[in-house]
Amino acid sequence: MKKTVICSAAALALIACGGPKTQDLVIGDVTWTGETTEVAMTPVTPNCPAYTVVNKPQVNIEDFPMDEEGYYVIFNGNEKMQGWRGYGKDGIPSRWSVEDGCIKFAGSGGGEAQTGEGGDLIFAHKFKNFMFEMEWKVSKGGNSGIFYLAQEIKNDKGEYEPIYISAPECQVLDNQNHPDAMLGKKLGIRQSSSLYDMIVADPQNANPAGEWNKVRIMVYKGTVVHTQNDANVVEYHLWTPQWTDLLETSKFNSESWPLAFELLNNCGGENHEGYIGIQDHGDDVWYRNIRVKVME
């Protein structure tokens, strides 16, 4: 099956754009044809280096099954992982596979130092207002994360920046055994379902390593809520002075990391939309029952 997809270029300030190229992008068992564009941006944040937003073809969310609750099922155990691909890549890195109906990452043991066979995984459709649900579990001492409103970003050298430079992260962690649970400026700020390095998940009700946890992330007109095991644990508001203040007190502040501050302060770009992604942090992690409801 082949479909044509129009990809729009979201830009804060456009200074140059390489000519679009048409490509066939194989995602699972579907081939999508569309234009890939690379949009060079003029940074607003002082001392922020130049960067480029890459827009690849997207899958059509309406081609995925909808359940009785109005959620599109974007992973139901299918071995081909239809609609998923590597961040900055056209295919699925080999360390990601399907095991017992789950998307599994086979850890390299190298922590955040991703290998060529790994890298983060994204669902190739940009969402704006949505409710996203999945279940996850990690190995002992495991670390991963769930990203949303992500963009694919290249730096001034033409290299892809990590996904978390443009996307808020809902932390996935073994709180009992991974050192991140005790790090950050405030205790708990890097624990499970916290807004990574910014807001502590309260209450902290994560199940231990090897057990399943359910997470729900709602993004609606800037309001974001993280729900862990049926309890709301984080709420905040994007694109507000509060959001800017949170960034300035985090590792992504404008002085220490101006590019991250620039991208996160306006995460989702001009259209306030982006990819959902899951992280390769070097540890074994499993995800299942992945679904998303599009909200107007």
Tell me about this structure:
The chain is mostly beta strands and 296 residues long. It has one domain (61-294): Jelly Rolls, CATH 2.60.120.560. The chain contains 2 helices and 19 strands. It has helices spanning 241-248, 258-265; strands at residues 2-5, 14-17, 21-27, 30-41, 51-55, 72-75, 84-86, 96-99, 102-105, 121-127, 130-138, 143-150, 152-155, 169-173, 213-220, 223-228, 231-237, 274-278, 285-294. The strands form 3 sheets. Strands 6, 8, 9, 11, 15, 16, 17 and 19 form an 8-stranded antiparallel beta sheet that branches. Strands 1, 2, 3, 4, 5 and 13 form a 6-stranded mixed beta sheet that branches. It has a 5-stranded antiparallel beta sheet with strand order 7-10-18-12-14, with no helix packed on it. A hairpin with a 2-residue loop joins strand 16 and strand 17. The chain is globular, with a radius of gyration of 18 Å. The two termini are 28 Å apart. The model is unreliable at 1-17 (pLDDT under 50).
